[in-house]
Amino acid sequence: MKSYEVNFDGLVGPTHNYGGLSYGNVASQSNSQQSSNPKEAALQGLAKMKALMEMGFQQGVLAPQERPDVAALRRLGFSGTDAQVIERAAKEAMPLLVASCSASSMWVANAATVSPSADTADGRVHLTAANLNCKYHRSIEHPTTSRVLGAMFANQQHFAHHAALPAVAQFGDEGAANHTRFCREYGEAGVEFFVFGRSAFDNRFPAPQKYPARQTLEASQAVVRLHGLREEGVVYAQQNPNVIDQGVFHNDVIAVGNGEVLFYHEDAFLETDQMLAELQSKLAKVGGNFQSVCVPRSAVTVDDAVRSYLFNSQLLSRPDGSMLLIVPQECQANERVWAYLQSLTSSGGLIREVKVFDLKQSMQNGGGPACLRLRVALNETELAAVNPGVIMTPPLYGSLTAWVEKHYRDRLSETDLADPQLLLECRTALDELTQILKLGAVYPFQIN
Prior knowledge:
Elements: E1 3-10, H1 26-30, H2 38-54, E2 59-62, H3 70-75, H4 82-92, H5 94-100, E3 112-115, E4 125-129, H6 136-139, H7 142-152, E5 159-162, E6 179-182, E7 191-196, H8 217-226, E8 234-238, H9 241-244, E9 255-258, E10 261-265, H10 272-285, E11 291-295, H11 302-308, E12 314-317, E13 323-328, H12 329-333, H13 335-346, E14 351-357, H14 360-364, E15 373-379, H15 380-385, H16 394-407, H17 420-436, H18 444-447
Parallel strand pairs: 1-2, 4-5, 7-8, 10-11, 13-14
Antiparallel strand pairs: 1-15, 3-4, 6-7, 9-10, 12-13
């Protein structure tokens, strides 16, 4: 039976704005309060989805969230009609209104951790929504995320859903941004790679001093238990605290893996040699041949990596066994990064081709190609059981492009977030989107 890695890309929401909400994310903070272009952001993301579909890759789409999140503001004491809630929040606590309008759910690498059926004890695909507990504006996402994922992967014979972990610092979980899977074939048993920034209960592990480590070891261990993963099919690694303090807030900003290959920066991890040996040993036991590509700091500095998002790229398997790297335009603009990539692809190694995409709107808010996609390995039967409305096709691309053109603004500033009309625009758009994607009622305004 054939198996696939399906990339479900996040559709950028109508309130895409530069709120600078993510401490530790250099791009997010450096572009804070600039005017954004939600329409351009959504169309850039859709263009990447269309291009990968046309290259022959399985591509899906994951819906954005309702914003502003009026229910979240009500939980914080704002009352009255929806318009009054927004007006009062804008007047009394603008940072809370900005947080409630965040379109950060577009970065669906943080939506959940997914384990394919070949790895799990019950032979089902397991999905655990990430609690994203480190940042308030992201911590409000997981209830809707769970409903959307439930509507996409609804067949209980093939899919098992788990609620987000407890919303406390000890179980901070950032989803697939800190998770990679290595395998020979997507439908075969593999090795799941969990990267954490700190331990909540074991002080033997060093922690960063400047920026928060968002993923805990304990959260990763809990997901392993929930998904019924075998000990011999799991490797844990600690992210280098020094690179977290340089703006590497997730592992997918400093490393990316696919198939049997890990592409990483020399400074990405602690105990790197031990980690690589464990990955090689465990993958060999299931018939795989683990290989790694290390980018030396002498060629690309951590600062280069953070500013260009070299590692927040998509590493995709070609039918001939070679690898394709999808990178943002910022990699081409960085002289050292681009020189390294030219050398890499001309060397005849594992990564043979680089394709560049314009994702400026997402990049300016702190997310690149890898942030925008959630990878789900599925066999043919499981793929057939996925809600067909979310699988990208030429007609769906056309429908979504027309939908964005109809509903999205081409400029959004912080003051615009206080406009109650924006909420009505968002709800109208999302109500139509659920019909396009055949999701049913997944948003609070549709349920309450």
